[in-house]
Amino acid sequence: MVDTVDTDLGASAPSLPVIDYSKLVEFKTATDPASIQSSKREQERLFAALRDVGFVYLQNHAIAAAAQQQLFRHAQRFFAQPESEKAKIETGESKAFHGWFSPQRTSGDSSKSDQKEAFDIGDDHDPTRPNQWPADWPEFRSDMTSFFEQCHQVHLELLAALAEQVGLKSDFFLPYVQRKDHFFRVLHYPETTGDSFRSRFRASPHTDYGTLTLLFNDTSGGLQVKNKAGKYVDAPPMPNTAIVNGKVEVSKSSSSLFRILSPFRCHFGDLLSRWFNDTLKSTEHRVIEPSSFDKSGSDIPDVIPARYSVAWFGHPNRDALIEPIASCCTADNPRKYEPVYAGKHVVERLANLHKHGKNAEAWTDSMARDGDKSIVKEVNVGA
What we know:
Distance between the termini: 31 Å
Helix content: 25-40%
Number of helices: 9
Radius of gyration: 20 Å
Structural class: alpha+beta
Largest sheet: 9 strands, mixed
Mean pLDDT: 83
């Protein structure tokens, strides 16, 4: 049984799986059998939650709430700049999709594109795909790169826990992700009108591209996840709380904008789903108007406040060949995927996002610009 958190958002709110990250990694330093066994049980809970629900909250992790707060402050300052300033570091495929991203500008269609903007980076130590940074703002760069590294370490621990659940060594995934070809994004969903949600999303329905996504939100709400029954359910924040030294306390922040949540969300991406042959499946999700507003539209106010989030997308090495793990291919769950190159898959997904101003709701390899032959390796690989 996976522990859950009471969201206190009414009877319609789903039970949200909560995983204690400190327990996941406790076996590394524990010497008593009880603690080691407790750690192994938490790993089993993680696997079960991602299998049965598709996303979890992680609490008691090593990423400080103060570091999260600082990134949200940076995000507010960055996105408050004039468009002409942000455009100086605008993203694109020739820039490895690093920099400022406006779906409305890249698609040229404000009637269908997502209502958001983003600033994206990769590993700042990779000279082959350099990041773009605002001028004269060293704190932004140092804080973003430090956060990137912390998320990478959490990502490694989560992958190690999942590997052991399908009979693999804990370091199985390490050679495939150690080059840190990840994608790190701060997002701004601007203040908008209630009517805008009749035809546009803040983030259209989609799955993420890579391994695991670590998602940090403010308390604005609006995130929804598709459950196993095919219905979207709210994945609400835990309002007015922060985990401080293992104790739940009411937030004393005077700014509602930055009342962020120390526990953060984690969900599955397409390439890890491919590795697990859909034993663990990527999670479809979207961002709409906050659930506190009437979905019929009659009571949606004229102005919907801005929303901010921080998303760290774990990706395999760009030259990694991703194919289903043998132990996940059985008579009841036969091999479902051909091998693909991780980097090409991610580039095709990003190119599609930029072209249309929103993600494809259901991605298949044939949607790549040159068809599936551009990302699928044409070899026969046994299960």
